[in-house]
Design a protein that fits this description.
The chain is built from 11 helices and 12 strands. It is α+β, with helices and mostly antiparallel strands. The longest helix is centred in the C-terminal third of the chain and has 25 residues. The protein is globular, with a radius of gyration of 21 Å. About 50% of the residues are buried.
Length: about 375
């Protein structure tokens, strides 16, 4: 049964009526452009075919009642009495989105609904952004305000930054809001301008979940963000996206060794991401795969955010003759990698890499072929 039907059925069982709306917002996988978003740089994600769904109907008492199938939990809150969390729970993502939207002048109405998603939590595929954008779409349906893709992405990012305390960049929310069917989306994280490109013909994207989850990632993430910002200040620039690799090579000696490594990754990753767009537009899977491999090496050696499990699954993938290239994706330290493979061999690739990785690490992976999907939308009526 599809998730859309699952939440509709549960809604009917809970409320003895059909929902007025069903909304959907996808997770994402980033093909290339990692740890560049908070440096005002370029990222190249696609919205995946896993998502969060909410079946809902309006209420007239200015309250939100949400039933989470995945958490086997129900929660309720009043839009006029939003309280910041002491310990973040799933409902706080909904409350945070409501807080930002109201702060920005959107008139919100209450609703009741059933929530479920199939984006693996903690895997680096942005289950949080999917939940945030689905929530924003639910409020859009019952409250009657216009849907502005950029504004909703920015609102959800602010909810994550300021309500939930996660200092993320704009990529996750932007691709969940603006994803396009069968296309990856190049996002300029400074201007939020986008450009799309299709995957090279005959290629498919495979997500490689290592079966490990990220530990201590928040502190490591914040540390690297601070190192990048300090390097940009040293060069007198707003962000590291404003220095090219040639200029950086001339001045890199001015930085201490650790800052130099962190900055070198960001500078070269931005350039790889723009070259990836050119490769995709040219239909050059070999070039795109080579850039993905370079990206992983840089993330592993310069930015130091990989992990033994991520390195192992990437090595298993890259050893396959039908793999153009693989790299870790997301913040790092666990979670997922992504591979570009020949479409005709994708299912065999999944079986072989799963077996080899399990033998090498003892971890049970989860590999699946994905395709680019559309961003947040109302799917019923």
């Amino acid at each position: 049964m599809s998730l859309a039907n699952k939440v509709r059925e549960r809604f009917a069982a809970e409320f003895a009526a059909d929902p007025a709306f069903v909304v959907r917002a996808p997770g994402r996988v980033n093909l290339i452009g990692e740890h560049t978003d908070y440096n005002d740089g370029f990222v190249f994600p696609l919205a995946i075919d896993r998502a969060t769904f909410i079946a809902l109907r309006p209420r007239n008492d200015n309250r939100v009642l949400a039933i989470s199938l995945d958490m086997d939990d129900r929660r309720e809150f009043a839009l006029g009495d939003l309280r910041s969390p002491t310990e973040v729970d799933w409902i706080d993502y909904l409350i945070g989105v409501a807080w930002v939207l109201q702060e920005r002048g959107y008139p919100l109405s209450g609703w009741e609904g059933v929530v479920s998603g199939d984006v693996p939590i903690g895997s680096g595929l942005s289950s949080s952004a999917a939940l945030e954008l689905a929530t924003a779409r639910a409020f859009h349906c019952v409250s009657g305000f216009g849907w502005d893709t950029q504004a909703m992405a920015l609102a959800c990012q602010k909810a994550e930054n300021e309500w939930l305390g996660v200092n993320c960049g704009i990529m996750d929310q932007m691709i969940s809001a603006a994803g396009l069917q069968d296309r990856a989306l190049l996002i300029d994280c400074r201007s939020l301008q986008t450009d799309s490109a299709p995957l090279p013909a005959g290629s498919a994207v495979v997500i490689l979940d290592t079966g490990t989850r990220r530990g201590l990632v928040d502190s490591a993430y914040n540390e690297r963000r601070q190192q990048c910002e300090a390097a940009a200040r040293h060069f007198g620039l707003p962000a590291l996206r404003d220095i090219d690799s040639a200029t950086f090579a001339e001045r890199a000696h001015e930085l201490d060794g650790l800052s130099r490594k962190r900055a070198r990754h960001v500078v070269t990753e931005n350039e790889r991401t723009l070259r990836a767009r050119d490769a995709m537009n040219a239909g050059d899977a070999l070039a795109l795969g080579a850039l993905m491999i370079e990206s992983h090496v840089s993330l592993r050696d310069e930015f130091e955010v990989s992990s033994p499990a991520l390195d192992a699954i990437v090595n298993c993938a890259n050893a396959e003759p039908d793999c153009y290239g693989a790299r870790m994706t997301g913040a790092g330290f666990g979670g997922c990698a992504v591979a570009l493979v020949r479409t005709e061999s994708a299912n065999d690739f999944v079986e072989r890499v799963s077996k080899r990785y399990l033998e090498a690490t003892g971890n049970q992976p989860s590999l699946y072929v994905t395709r680019a999907s559309a961003g947040a939308a109302t799917v019923y009526p």
